[in-house]
Amino acid sequence: MTLTMTRSAHARETLVLGLPLIGSHLAQMALHVTDTVMVGWYGVVSLAAVVLGASSFFIVFVVGSGFAKAVMPMVAAALGREDETQVRRDTRMGIWLSIAFGVAVYPIFWWSGPILLALGQDPEVSALARDYMRIVGLGMVPALVVTVLQSYLSALHRTQVVLWVTLVAVAVNVGVNWALIFGNWGFPELGARGAAIATVTVQLVSLAALGLYAHLLPALRRFHLFQRFWRPDWPALRQVFRLGLPIGLTGLAEGGLFQASALMMGWIGTVELAAHGIALEVAALTFMLHVGLSSAATIRIARFDGQGERQALRQAAKVAVVISLGVAIASVILFLSAPRPIVALFLDLSKPESAAILAYGTVLLGLAALFQLADGMQVMALGLLRGVQDTRVPMWLAAVSYWLIGIPSSYVLAFPMGYGGVGLWLGLVVGLVCAAASLMWRFWRLVS
After folding, report:
1. Which residue among 6, 90, 130, 408 is least packed, with the fewest CB closer than 10 Å?
2. pTM for the whole structure
3. Which of 142, 156, 137, 22 is nearest to 91 (CA)?
């Protein structure tokens, strides 16, 4: 059967899938923001410990989440082939690998104290970060399984429940933080440890909500997701691992690019680092729009790939790219037309250092406009490639673009050439442009 769809129909389906996913990604960011703000109210040492611990957790989580993200195109492709048994097997093996990964990495969290001290961190902050990480590390397994269930439900076009559960998670996080960080409502005052308990609580609540929805919803019972959960399916396990590990390492490579940029900006100065953090936070918000659209594109491309509908696949990809370009252009206009008011939202302008941060942040946000197109295109290209289950070569293309081109370009422009923070951000643009160009070339070469 040949599928014939107009461009407007493709756009509508992409947005119906993508908008709830965009909302859930933004809500996920809100979890991080509420932790940072509420612990910041509590104390400086606690904030430093939580920032250190949460960023360490996220780095490990990114690698493990590759298995969960591999489930999305595999389930969508199985649906395209009308193979409902394979839907269950792929998802179940994604859960297996996520559990195994979460258990395997827990020693990193348990022994985080000596690791942080060896990396030159302040002893007081390291001790508190160790306590935080020992607790929050217990949430790695549920966090990864939640991501598998999100991928499974998204591939089944159940993206709205993913959004609503994430929004509930934000509310739960605020409430438990309020009780345990500050000792309100008769609970003990635990500071950073309270924030860690809140994070694990949120992950368990999300797991229960999504698991019950996937198991009990009448429309989904036919998949028997948890039926004979203990039974292995070695071919599916190998395929999830083969697709998922490169996805995780690609995320690590991209995250490493921005971590390295923050480290180098710290060499330049405190004001510059503060401005850098604000500009990246704003850019991350717009990036979430592209991530949601990219996930929607993955699902649709994988479904058409499973059906063998190459013409519809190419048309859907073109429409997704055009939508992402439109979002990027809107972001460019916003960043160039109102950089100062945007940066000012993150500052207390009564403080003496705020004027310098505002001025520098305004410059960096203007530079952020330069990489909006490239950043949107590289994440969209990754989504399209995952839709056709191509992840290994994209991993190498991304690693080369970020680590062999982007980071060295940032260093050379910032320091030997003397452009400072501006040069550092221009190097980020170079790396992202290389990634976008090479990954898009890879996709269109595969499907042409």
Report:
1. 6
2. 0.88
3. 156
In this structure, which amino acid lies at residue 358? L
CA distance 303 to 79: 7
Amino acid found at 352: P
Region of residue 227 (phi > 0: left; psi between -120 and 50: alpha; otherwise: beta): beta
* Gap between the Cα atoms of 445 and 438, Å rounded: 10
Secondary structure class of 229 (helix, strand, coil): coil
Instruction: Return the number of other C-beta atoms located less than 10 Å from residue 44's C-beta.
Output: 10
Q: Under the phi-then-psi rule, with left for phi > 0, alpha for psi from -120 to 50, and beta for the rest, what region is 122?
A: beta
Q: What is the pLDDT, as a whole number, of residue 1? A: 43
Whole-angstrom distance, CA of residue 359 vs CA of residue 355: 6
Give the pLDDT confidence score for residue 280 in this predicted structure.
Answer: 82
Is the distance from CB of 219 to CB of 77 less than 8 angstroms? no
* 115 to 127, 168, 260, 446: CA distances (angstroms): 11, 35, 19, 43
* The pLDDT of residue 373: 87
- Cβ proximity of 1 and 80 under 8 Å: no
**Dist CA 40 CA 48 (whole Å):** 9
DSSP symbols for 370-417: HTHHHHHHHHHHHHHHHHTT--HHHHHHHHIIIIIIIHHHHHHHHTTT
